[in-house]
Write a structure and sequence with these properties.
Helix content is 35%, strand content 19%. The chain is of the alpha/beta class and 193 residues long. Strands 1-7-6-5-4-2-3 form a seven-stranded mixed sheet, sandwiched between helices. Strand 5, helix 5 and strand 6 form a beta-alpha-beta unit. The longest helix is centred in the C-terminal third of the chain and has 14 residues. It is globular.
């Protein structure tokens, strides 16, 4: 609930790790024959999910060049269901124009999924630009002290219903203790950021 308020989103779900959040933010919305368009600058594990694992389920992918925004729209295909990006990226800290990315996505009825763990909601709220799904590795700045692992997926209630169902069936839920630690960590987020 605290992260929903901070990010300006309706609903959310805590996961055991950041990568569990990334995976849970994709799988309820992608199926065989679909396409995901992703940023060329991503956390290595996110790239591996998209490049190495999604094709095993018949999900196609391509990567857009962050430095060439004029080419982004041309890479959306008829079967593109989601755009996934980080801004700033991890570890390169490359920035994306979220307003422009969301304008393109809405034009093509494509979900926009942004990993906001490096900026945190203290510095950036992707929902203000029309982002549909926000993911976090809470292990990083949300905890900020290296004590626990966790992840968060935020969206509107309709999308989060699908995410929650996926997580309940596949088991990446956050432990109550880790949830408590992360909730307490939010009290110092503004100081640390």
């Amino acid at each position: 609930e605290k992260m929903c308020v901070l990010e300006g989103m309706e609903d959310g779900f805590g996961t055991a790790t950041g990568m569990a959040a990334v995976f849970a933010s994709m799988m309820p919305f992608l199926q065989q024959g679909d396409h995901i368009l992703a940023s060329s600058a991503l956390f290595a594990s996110s790239t591996r999910i998209i490049k190495d694992f999604l094709p095993k389920w018949g999900i196609e992918h391509s990567f857009f060049d962050i430095k060439k925004p004029e080419t982004w729209e041309s890479q959306i295909q008829p079967n593109t269901k989601m755009i996934f990006a980080e801004t700033p990226s991890n570890p390169g800290l490359v920035l994306i124009d979220l307003e422009y990315l969301c304008t393109i996505a809405k034009k093509h009825n494509v979900l926009v999924n942004i990993d906001n763990c490096f900026a945190t909601p203290y510095l950036q709220q992707p929902a203000k630009y029309g982002v549909d799904i926000i993911t976090h590795s809470a292990t990083k700045f949300i905890d900020g002290q290296g004590r626990v692992t966790g992840g968060i997926v935020l969206a509107n209630k309709e999308l989060t219903k699908e995410i929650r169902q996926f997580c309940r069936q596949t088991g990446p839920s956050m432990s109550p203790f880790n949830a408590w630690v992360l909730s307490k960590s939010l009290e110092t987020l503004h100081v640390r950021m």
